[in-house]
Amino acid sequence: MITTGISITGCGSATPSVLLDNHGLSERVETSDEWITSRTGITQRRLADPDTSLSQLAIAAAQNAIAMAAIDPADIDLIILATSTADDLFGSASFIQYQLGATKAVAFDMTAACSGFVFGLVTASQFIRTGVYQNVLLIGADILSRWVDWSDRRTCILFGDGAGAVVLQADEHDRLLGFEIRSDGRQNQSLNLSYRPEPQEILTGITIGQGTYNPITMNGQEIYKFAVKKVPEVIEKALFRANLTVDQIDWLILHQANQRILNAVAERLNIPPKKVISNLAKYGNTSAASIPLALDEAVREGKIKPGDRIMISGFGAGLTWGAALFEWGR
After folding, report:
1. pLDDT value at position 330?
2. Dihedral in degrees, nearest 10, Cα atoms 260, 265, 267, 269
3. Is there a catalytic annotation at residue 263?
4. Using CB atoms within 10 A of its CB, is residue 69 exposed (0-12), middle (13-18) or buried (19+)?
5. Where in the chain are the domains?
6. Long-range contacts made by residues 154-158, C-beta under 8 angstroms, separation at least 24?
7. pLDDT at 220
8. Catalytic residue among 11, 22, 114, 279, which?
9. Could you please report the per-residue DSSP string of 166-226?
């Protein structure tokens, strides 16, 4: 039973200043602007330099979202940081909480890769609907350039860095209309950022694994097939839960992974291209940041207006996927 409604009242985003376009990338690996653009739709991406932390990007995005929502950081009850690339393996959310001045907020990291923002939105909503918290800050942020093999043209062309954030608030009207989230570990090996142990004998007969992480590996064909099949299904499930039809969606914001995936999903759902928001040409795949980054740009450009119905869907490593339908604004 829903006791409290939810409104999404503010959004914000931040990207690093370093820009790498396809022409520049072709100096690093054997590729070309035409090859990358025709296969992915990406023309450039933003990269964090060694002095730019995930926390800095997340804080900047959060501050913009908090300002739009017109609340005080001290009024935030909960901060969820959806990321796979925290500055600290123990988590970065608490440091972000401190830097924002959100003195009473509990904060934690959540890892669901490119589905992280959708999973975070659903998680945040449960705290509000049960009346536990009134104001929740959800941040999606990733610096995947840290873990890309820059000699592998199959993956290095895809990824960029960034952060996006939203503020969710308790409301007498419930504007989160429906959602569905899923996981299936059978295809786990299709997309990985895996630990690489290096054996170290600390005493005779006692060896531990002490190492680092491998670069990102991906089976692009399997991920494409998975997304094109599963994403329309989960969107239709979210629509069913909202008792709405696909033609009642104003905007579709998919995880910005590949323009071919965006086009194929929209075509399967009979959603016209004018309703599909895409900015991956400028930013590439920013993982958990991609949906809130695209949302923030569309809101600030005046495309998305209060009351518009927005369907979002994330999909990626795990494998995980999910969709959520909400009305923008109070």
Report:
1. 87
2. -170
3. no
4. buried
5. 3-174, 176-184+215-326
6. 154/218, 154/220, 155/215, 155/216, 155/217, 155/218, 156/25, 156/28, 156/29, 157/22, 157/25, 157/29, 157/31, 157/36, 157/40, 157/42, 157/284, 158/40, 158/42, 158/257, 158/258, 158/284, 158/285
7. 87
8. 114
9. EEEEEESS--EEEEEEEE-GGGGGGEE--EE--EEEEETTEEEE--EEPPPEE-HHHHHHH
255 is catalytic: yes
pLDDT in the model for residue 3: 65
Other residues' Cβ atoms within 10 Å of the Cβ of residue 325: 23
Evaluate if pTM is beyond 0.85: yes
* Range 3-174: architecture per CATH: 3-Layer(aba) Sandwich (3.40)
**Shortest CA distance to 285 belongs to which of 27, 85, 1, 56?**
85
Write out residues in the chain with pLDDT < 70, as ranges. Answer: 1-3
What is the topology classification, in CATH, of domain 176-184+215-326? Peroxisomal Thiolase; Chain A, domain 1 (3.40.47)
Query: pLDDT, tens digit, for every residue of 242-273?
Result: 999 999 999 999 999 999 999 999 999 999 99
Residue 173 annotated as catalytic: no
> Rounded to an integer, what distance in angstroms lies between the CA atom of residue 118 and that of residue 323?
7
Pairing of strands 78-82, 106-110: parallel
d(CA 8, CA 263): 27
Q: What is the pLDDT of residue 67?
A: 98
Determine which one of 22, 64, 156, 255 is catalytic. 255
